[in-house]
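**Sequence, structure tokens**
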Amino acid sequence: MNIRPALSTDSAQLSSLCVHVQSLHAAHHPDIFKTPQSEAFAITFFEGMLADPTISIFIAEADGQALGYILCKLVERDETPFTFAMRYLLIDQISVRPGARQQGVGRALMKQAELLARELAVQKIQLDSWDFNMNAHAFFEHVGFQKFNFRFWRHL
């Protein structure tokens, strides 16, 4: 398996790689998430992400096939009266094709995020996940992430 930085020509590939995760989110919260109508649904989004200097995207490949990707964002927040300045790497998206799961792809992508964080001299990696995505939660905990915050909502 090879992990490589995504190129500006990878937008269609990235869009295709995230269809199943987007569909999962749309199935659980159709009032929030849109159901992808094609594998090309997010090409423009990824074009913008690839042009953003605070964003790093990596693709996992094997035998010429893209298996998954990870989208990381460097977040820098100024100090406020309430919090100290913060600088961390946010894993905004991670996706592995269903047929490639349980083969080390997700772990390799997370390792790449860790290498990026070290390159950027960042001490913390952060991510969030929706409550219904228990498989993702188990994976995140398995690779060393800890829960630290809970969000609540109330529909009116």
